[in-house]
Amino acid sequence: MINTINHIRGDRMIWAIVTLLAIFSFLPVYSAASNLAYSGGDVHTFGYFTKHFIHLFLGFSIIYIVHKIPYRYFKGLSMVMFPVVLILLIVTILQGTTINGANASRWIQIPLVGFTFQPSTLAALVLMVFVARYLSKTQLDYLSFKDSVLTLWLPVFTVLVLILPANFSTSAIIFSMIILLTFLGGYPLKYLIAIMSSGILIFLLFVLTAKAFPEVIPNRVDTWASRIVNFIDGKDTQEDYQIEKAKIAIATGSIYGLGPGKSIQKNFLPQSSSDFIFAIIIEEYGLLGGLFLLTLYLLFLFRIVIVVQKADTLFGKLLTTGVGLPIIFQALINMGVAVELFPVTGQTLPLISSGGTSIWVTCLAVGIILSVSAKREEIRNQDGEHSHPLEILSETLNEK
Question: From the CB of residue 341, how many other CB atoms can be counted at a distance below 10 Å?
Answer without folding.
Answer: 11
